[in-house]
Give the backbone structure.
Amino acid sequence: MKKILTFLLLALMAMAVNAQQIEVDPDTIYTIHSMTQAQFKQVIADYDAREWQMRNERPVVVDFYADWCVPCRRLNPILRNIAHYYQGEVDFYRIDVDKNQDIAGAFQVRSIPYLLICPLNGEPKGITGLYPEQEYIRLINQVLER
């Protein structure tokens, strides 16, 4: 009986999360731009510097991923929706950890998917794992103090 109730509760929670997803126009593609660690230093911040100093004019979310990572591939459409939600307010980028190991090491990326949320002021915060869309929005808002 407990197993059935637990299953029903989980099913209801999953339906509630899906009901809250952002509606995105299927004809519009929201891309997350790929970048290298050198481009990260030019566009976002020099991660080797002693003090974190944002260079970008807007907050940034960086997706650390790998092509072989199934959860990373599942995160991609979620991030496209989130990029649409924050369009013009937050910039979104992707960094392949296999091709950019130095930056992955600098941010201590031990597991992927890993999102790095970089506010304009203050230190960046990292999130590891695959979550529902609304959880990412909540965490991004929290780091950006919205």
Observations:
- Confidence is low (pLDDT under 50) at residues 5-29.
- The first helix runs from residue 2 to 19.
- Residues 9 and 73 are 27 Å apart (CA to CA).
